[in-house]
């Protein structure tokens, strides 16, 4: 039976809806409009598909997955080359190839999943995950919290590990979304979350959350889901109001924005 449609929330939507404290200059609400409302328009779609950072993230995840499937590769002198061949790395742009090879070599030196009791490990190409249906008061929404890796610690604690690449900071909001999801998926066990940057070998602190903090996160996500649906509806009714509904924030943020080539508010556009 098909499930009834529900609004959704995710870490991704949270990060696109609210700025991180102190990073307001990098935040642009119009980004959410492009990514989450106009994503099917051909010119937007092409920019979303041709995203080098996402590609590197997916290939790095796939590389870790392949090493986990065949741990012998970790100690073979041509293990990295073999994984690179499985990933068809030679079909990728040069920069992507170089960074993934570096990541695979780093992982061979520091194979952090070896010896872990893995419950789930993503290959990176699974597509859209199944949502967790959350009811907050009378409001229901789908929570999407796709995890890179989940393992069980020797004391039974569920540990959700998120892999990073590049210079992206660890955002605790993402960990809280994972911990909220874990409270539904593994209600009998305590859970923790952490991040590991595969490119620079950096591990975050272990992040935990009290039940009060998780309740706060759940309410925050509910508000975000509600607000996003309202704004989507306003846009469909009045597409000309795009910039009013999703206000642009031209400036430093444009330098990192994949939509700068099509956004009429882009600082680059203004300078041209
Ligand atoms: S180009 Fe600048 S103003 Fe336009 S969506 Fe991107 S960050 Fe916002």
From TrEMBL:
The entry's keywords: ATP-binding, DNA damage, DNA repair, Helicase, Hydrolase, Nucleotide-binding
Domain PD-(D/E)XK endonuclease-like: 54-264
Protein name: PD-(D/E)XK nuclease family protein
């Amino acid at each position: 039976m098909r499930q009834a449609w529900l609004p959704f929330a995710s870490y991704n939507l949270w990060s696109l809806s609210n700025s991180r404290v102190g990073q307001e200059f990098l935040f642009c609400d119009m980004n959410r409009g492009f990514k989450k409302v106009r994503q099917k328009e051909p010119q937007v779609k092409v920019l979303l598909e041709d995203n080098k950072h996402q590609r590197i993230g997916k290939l790095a995840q796939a590389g870790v997955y392949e090493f986990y499937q065949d741990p012998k590769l970790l100690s073979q002198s041509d293990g990295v080359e073999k994984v690179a061949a499985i990933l068809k790395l030679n079909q990728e742009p040069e920069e992507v190839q170089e960074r993934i090879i570096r990541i695979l070599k780093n992982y061979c030196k520091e194979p952090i999943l070896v010896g872990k009791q893995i419950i789930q490990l993503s290959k990176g190409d699974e597509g859209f995950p199944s949502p967790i249906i959350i009811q907050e008061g009378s409001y229901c929404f789908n929570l999407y919290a796709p995890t890179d890796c989940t393992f069980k610690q020797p004391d039974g604690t569920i540990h959700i590990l998120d892999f990073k690449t590049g210079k992206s900071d660890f955002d605790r909001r993402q960990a809280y979304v994972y911990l909220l999801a874990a409270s539904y998926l593994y209600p009998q066990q305590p859970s923790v979350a952490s991040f590991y940057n595969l490119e620079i070998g950096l591990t975050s602190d272990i992040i935990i959350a009290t039940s009060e903090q998780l309740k706060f996160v759940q309410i925050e996500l509910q508000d975000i889901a509600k607000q996003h649906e309202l704004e989507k509806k306003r846009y469909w009714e009045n597409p000309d109001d795009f910039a009013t509904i999703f206000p642009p924030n031209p400036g430093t943020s444009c330098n990192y924005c994949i939509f700068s080539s099509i956004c009429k508010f882009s600082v680059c556009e203004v300078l041209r």
